[in-house]
Amino acid sequence: MKFGTKAIHAGIKPDPSTGAIMTPIFQTSTYVQKSPGDHKGFEYSRTQNPTRQVLERNLAALENGNHGLCFGSGMAAIDCILKLLKPGDEVISTNDLYGGTYRIFTKVFSKYGIKFHFVNMEDSTQVESLINKNTKLIWAETPTNPMMNIIDIRALGKISKKYGVLLGVDNTFATPFLQNPLDDGADIVMHSVTKYLAGHSDVVMGAIVVKEDKLAEELAFMQNSCGAVPGPQDCFLVLRGIKTLHLRMERHSQNGKTIAAYLKNHPKVDKVYWPGFEDHPNHSIARRQMRDFGGMISFTLINNRLEDAIKVLEKFKVFVLAESLGGVESLCGHPASMTHASIPREEREKVGLSDSLIRLSVGIEDAEDLKKDISKALEAV
Ligand SMILES: *Cc1c(COP(=O)(O)O)cnc(C)c1O
C-alpha cells in the first residue's frame, strides 16, 4: 500500500463486535478471563490495550517496521531506549538536538554511568572515530532541531552495521511521510507523537518503531516493566490525527517552501535555515532521504540582537508564541530561551544557535496570511 492508504487503513479493522468503523476507545484497565490464563490476548492495560495496539500497528506500518510501541511522551520513548544500556556503555549523539534529549542524556542517564559524546554528524567520519568497544548506540536527529542540518542516515547505518552498534533516529521533525530511517539502515525510529503525528496540539505521546523481533521484545519488556504507557483516549486521538498526516505534511511542506523563500528575500532577515534550499549544505542528502522538506524553518535577524527577536516574537499574531511544533496552526519560538534553554550557552553557540534565532513551525493556514503576519512582525526590527 502507498502512504496515504496506509495512514488510513494499516493495522485498522472495523470493530468485530459492532462493526464500528473507527477503533473504539477501550477505556479499561483489565480484561475478564474465563479460567486463569485463558483470555483473548489482553490481560492488563499497562501491558496491552486494544486501542493502543491498533495505533502501534499503524505506526509500525507507516515507518516500514514490524513492531510499534507507544509511550506517555516522546521523552518516555527515549527513556525506554536508553534503558537497553548498562553502566559503562557509550552513546554517540548529534550535537544539535532537542533540549529535552540533551537533558535526559546529560542529567539523568549519565548519573547511571552511561557516557555520551556529542558530535557534528554532518561529517560521518567523526562518528566513526569515536566508536570503541563500549559504544552501544548512535543517536541522530535529522533535520536537526533547530539548525535544520541534514544528517546522512544511510552513512550512519553503514557505520552502525560495521561495528555492530544500534542506530536510533529521532524522526519527529520529518515524520514517516517525509522520511523512513529504517529503510536507510536505522535499527530504531523514535517519535514525539505530540508533534506532527498527532498534529492538532492536543496530545502528548511518544513512539518507537523497530524491525527486529528481539529488539522489539526487549523494548516491550521495558515498556511494560517501567510502565510509561499512553491512555486509550490519547491513542484514539492520534489514530484520528494520522488519517490526514499525508495531507497535512504536503501542505506544511508547501507553506514551508513559500515562507522560507519569503524570509530569504526579506531585508530584516540574516540567515534562513531550511533544507529545501539548493544552497543548503546538505541539500542533496535531504533530496535523497526525504520526500519533501517540511514546514520547520529557523532564521536569524540582521544584527543578531536578542531584544529584536523578542519584539518580533511579541508582534506575531497568526504565528503564536508557544513551545512545541507540528500542529495545524503556525507556531513560533525562541530556542535559546525556550526549547533549548537547558543547553549551556557555549554549547548552543557552537552549533550556531544564536540569540536572535527564531524557529517557525509553519502550519497549514493560507500562506498569504502567514506572509503578511511575518511582514508585520519584522517591522519591529
Ligand atoms: C518534542 C520533542 C521530543 C520530546 O517529546 P515529548 O513528546 O515532548 O516528550 C523529542 N524529540 C524532538 C525532536 C521533539 O521535538
Automatic annotation (TrEMBL):
Decide whether keyword Acyltransferase is in the record: no
Any GO MF annotation of the entry: cystathionine gamma-synthase activity
* Family annotation (Gene3D superfamilies): Aspartate Aminotransferase, domain 1 (3.90.1150.10), Type I PLP-dependent aspartate aminotransferase-like (Major domain) (3.40.640.10)
For this protein, the record's InterPro entries field holds: Cys/Met-Metab_PyrdxlP-dep_enz, PyrdxlP-dep_Trfase, PyrdxlP-dep_Trfase_major, PyrdxlP-dep_Trfase_small
Report which superkingdom the organism of origin falls in: Bacteria
Pfam family of this protein, just one?
Answer: Cys_Met_Meta_PP
Task: Name what cofactor the protein needs.
Answer: pyridoxal 5'-phosphate
Q: Give the EC class as a word.
A: transferase
Q: What is its EC number?
A: 2.5.1.48
Name this polypeptide is given: Cystathionine gamma-synthase
- Organism of this sequence: Cyclobacterium plantarum
